[in-house]
């Protein structure tokens, strides 16, 4: 595993990358998700934006470059938050990182939605990505910094 001294354990991200009717999934190697096919993602590093973390996590875990777009889901608890983006495929060939996952593949959507080794959270996030709508980044004048995600008029 990597050195996690710069990790913010309260904030995590994921992305749903869909290409040709398939979703990029990785088979987890540890913890409660061991042996399960999940979407790539992870914790933010200190000073990193959620979008930067999605790009980094995908590259580290799968060798695939993505560009996060709309926010399609947010999971919040007393201890942390988890932000899910729709992620556009940019380039790269899917491969395992040999650490956090032991396999990476572009799995057909209809297959992953019925597999028992794909967690419900992954299935729900894929459904959210397929809905075609999501929260979009809204630019506004502020001195506080940060990013506002919301519903925009079409």
Written description of the protein model:
The protein has 154 residues and is α+β, with helices and mostly antiparallel strands. The chain has a single domain (7-150), classed as Alpha-Beta Complex (Nucleoside Triphosphate Pyrophosphohydrolase), CATH 3.90.79.10. It has helices at 50-62, 109-112, 120-130; strands at 7-19, 22-28, 37-38, 41-45, 65-76, 81-91, 101-108, 136-138, 148-150. Strands 1, 2, 3, 4, 5, 6 and 7 form a 7-stranded mixed beta sheet that branches. Strands 8-9 form a two-stranded antiparallel ribbon. The longest helix has 13 residues, at 50-62.
Brief write-up:
The protein has 154 residues and is α+β, with helices and mostly antiparallel strands. Helices cover 18% and strands 42% of the residues.
Identify the notable features of this structure and list them briefly.
Nucleoside Triphosphate Pyrophosphohydrolase; globular; two-stranded antiparallel ribbon; 154 residues; 9 strands; alpha+beta; seven-stranded mixed sheet
Sequence-ordered SSE layout with sheet pairings:
Layout: E1 7-19, E2 22-28, E3 37-38, E4 41-45, H1 50-62, E5 65-76, E6 81-91, E7 101-108, H2 109-112, H3 120-130, E8 136-138, E9 148-150
Q: Identify the CATH architecture.
A: Alpha-Beta Complex
Number of helices: 3
The value of Rg in angstroms is: 15 Å
Give the overall form: globular
């Amino acid at each position: 595993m990597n050195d996690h001294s710069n990790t913010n354990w309260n904030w995590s991200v994921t992305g749903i990358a869909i290409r040709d009717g398939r979703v990029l999934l990785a088979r987890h190697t540890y913890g409660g998700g061991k042996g399960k096919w999940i979407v790539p993602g992870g914790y933010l590093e200190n000073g990193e934006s959620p979008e930067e973390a999605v790009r980094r996590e995908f590259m580290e875990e799968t060798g695939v470059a993505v560009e996060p777009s709309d926010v399609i889901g947010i999971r919040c608890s007393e201890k942390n938050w988890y932000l899910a983006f729709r992620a556009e495929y940019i380039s790269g060939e899917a491969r395992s990182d040999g650490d956090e996952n032991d396999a990476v593949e572009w799995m057909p959507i209809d297959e992953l939605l019925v597999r028992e080794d794909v967690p419900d959270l992954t299935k729900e996030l894929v459904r959210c990505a397929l809905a075609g709508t999501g929260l979009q980044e809204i630019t506004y004048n502020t001195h506080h910094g940060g990013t506002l995600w919301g519903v925009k008029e079409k």
